[in-house]
Amino acid sequence: MTRKNPNIVITGTPGVGKTTHAEELARNLGFTHLSINQIVKDESFHEGKDEGTGSWVVDEDKLLDHLESTSLSATGGYILDWHACDLFPERWIDLVVVLRCGSETLYDRLVKRGYGGKKLEENMDAEIMQVVLEEARAGYGEGVVVELRSEGVGDLEGNVGRVEEWVERWRGDNIKEGEGEEGG
Ligand code: ADP
After folding, report:
1. Is there an atom of ligand 1 within 6 Å of 10 CB?
2. CATH number of the domain that residue 18 is part of
3. Which domain holds residue 36?
4. Cα–Cα distance for residue pair 38/57, rounded to 1 Å
5. Chief location of this protein (predicted)?
6. Which residue's alpha carbon is nearest to atom 5 within ligand 1?
């Protein structure tokens, strides 16, 4: 492996705090934050919206081709922020952070976001059933997946600190002395 920095997936049910975590981590680490939802929308990597759930039906081939064209696999230093994770090839990914949230907190956040009816119910169920965590565990090695709570600001700060320490350790384990020190 020649990457100078790890690639990190921040995943979880909508509303758990992916974007908040990803933005802070990217800022602190000098990494590139890729909001996959935003890319799918901006680049039209979709076939419209699913009528039932209102989510984009993603064209995964186009999305992966696009990601492949970035320096993600060559240099690392990317934070991928999405509510799914099993799409990303294992070889690209060094850490998968699955954020978790209690029902009451998540309900309030999603209602605030304007979710209601079936969409609200499906997302609440998905969190309770830990759908994203199971997907992460099925797709990546045991040491790659970490489950972190994201209820309050203290959690956010603690989680960001933990991931930053993990990045330091990754660099220590993966970069030989004399190789690149700078961010990527
Ligand atoms: P996601 O990207 O997973 O949909 P967001 O990062 O947009 O979630 O967070 C949803 C809302 O919850 C935002 O208003 C955010 O400020 C808040 N939030 C998320 N995580 C935390 C946390 N750990 N502490 C306090 N507020 C949080």
Report:
1. no
2. 3.40.50.300
3. 8-169
4. 13
5. cytoplasm
6. 17
